[in-house]
Fold these 3 entries.
Entry 1:
Amino acid sequence: MAGPQCCSNPPTLDPSCGAGHVEKLGGFKSYVTGSPNSKFAILLASDIFGYEAPNLRKLADNVAGAGFFVVVPDFHRGDYYVTEDCGGHRPIGVWLQDHGTDKGFEDAKLVIEDLKSKGVKAIGAAGFCWGAKVVVGLSKFKLIQAGVLLHPSFVTLDDIKEVKVPIAILGAEIDQLSPPELVKQFQEILSSKSEIKCLVKIFPKVVHGWTMRYDDQDEAACKPAEEAHQNMLEWLVEHVK
């Protein structure tokens, strides 16, 4: 079950942020950025706070700069999690009943089908917290060419055993949802599968959510987030392009 770390430091959402625009893909409003003529696409699956988070869209724009068409779907259909401090009235457990990662996985398949229908030849995906569970599902069925899980939530050992594409897992030293002990078990499983390329890294002194929910005016917070973003991008360039 999601805990306090999953809900901490919520972003200030901005539907107009980013260099891209919003259009429908697979039936979902999606933030898209980069050349629509690119044959290489990246799907970014958000955390519980949704696709209007400025740091998420900024990252999408950066990934697009590497020659990808980047898609950030609104898998929550506008119903993002709102913390009690921000006026929300649903506990996270109740919100998750309405927004299960299994539904997110099925929704992601529709977006991927739409991308392929538009001529995209190769697709990678990265997921943050809630979105990481969606991405690991895609990786189990070879629906993507490569995946990246950033401070994943709900990902199990059985999930990792079924991964069939190159996968990177970027974890936090301080993480109640995927503690370092669990991430190390992920690594042991992947290392035993010689046919699957993997990267597993635990970032010191950071907490769950550090790649998304950081203050972009705080240099100490930006540095590890940007390092993780670069690791993610390098992995996707290597295994998708």
Entry 2:
Amino acid sequence: MWWSGARALRSSLPSSSPPPLRTLARAPPPGLLPRFLSSTASPPVPDAAPSSSSSPPPAFTGNLKKALAGLRRIDLDGLRWRVFDAKGQVLGRLASQIATVLQGKDKPTYAPHVENGDMCIVVNAKDISVTGRKMTDKIYYWHTGYIGHLKERRLKDQMAKDPTEVIRKAVMRMLPRNRLRDFRDRKLRIFAEGEHPFHDRPIESFVMPPRKVREMRPRARRALVRAQKKEQDRDAKAQGKAEAGAKAKVAT
């Protein structure tokens, strides 16, 4: 067999043949290897001190798949990431500002047929506020398609079920119904809590404009003046009675 021939060839080689390559490598002298490693080792880099000025963003604990859905279909080049804090804001006033940013009406390049709006991130949707008695009187209606299946849900119940849909419905009903509506809907990201997964983006907070308080109507103003005058007359009479009683005590 072939191994018997290889064994015979190996035995016929002279004894002065060079040893195999694996025997040529010799062990380094003692003490040389530690000195070589210590000379080539890079000096230890001191740990960076944690910066106390910038704290890490809170970890996102919501549905990440839902939060990132549809981002691949958006051209993010040149878009700004605007963050809206809904805590304590009036629902309608906040929705009007979001609709303005989604349509790009705050830009000098606005055109009604061009989609150039920015990304809108809304946080703290559960802390939105409404005026009047809308929390109990406002009702959302929808139909299932079956005869007599008209459903309804009050704003209070919708806030308990999913507060993000309250802001989404308010914003979408302020947008024009055209082919750009779906693109603008993808740019709107609403979160019930104060955390979002877009901290790696160049986000910037949106500052709500100051609320303009409407002047009182003439009828309400006249009623307020009458009430203030009546209160002043009542205080004057009470003060006069107190002074008269003090004078009577002094005279006696």
Entry 3:
Amino acid sequence: MKASAAAFFELPLKKKKKYAMAANELQGYGQAYVVSEQRKLNWCDMIVLIILPPENRNFNFWSLTLPSFKEAVEVYSTEVQKVTVVIYVNLSLLMGMDRDGLKRLQDDEISGLQIKHKEERIPVKPIPGCLVVNISDATEILSNGMYKSIEHRAITNEKKPRMSVAAFAFPDEELEIGPLESMWMTEIVCLEFKLVENLD
């Protein structure tokens, strides 16, 4: 997957712009600009592809002329989906539900992910061959605060380009989310969160 993504970003700008994000569109090629606390401008090239559900795929944004790009995305997304299921199963079991109760990545040695801990930004040191999984706000609410959503950010590297391949698993937009009974229905645990809609 990384080789296919790298091949896309090595294309001339004119070719990459064929896959540019349209107005009000999440998918496609573009740039992200983020101003940090130090008021420096962080910049990154990115391509966003919605993979699942398959009916949301828009192949106008896929570089299908690159050899094996589509195949690499297919294999990667299938494997990420397997990892997502394992994470959901284990979180479900840890939260006292059955395994189906609840039905993200860093690059090599180049650090670019930071988490916020006690008002300080801490770099996350990559471990080769491992995935970084960020717990979402939804998981924090479902677990009644037992599993914390971590404020995090991606930053640029001054000395070397960095590539991350990220994947996201979202609850349904219309789903109402609140603490699971197994996470607060005891004498010593109180309810920390109220019921909210996922889009909130």
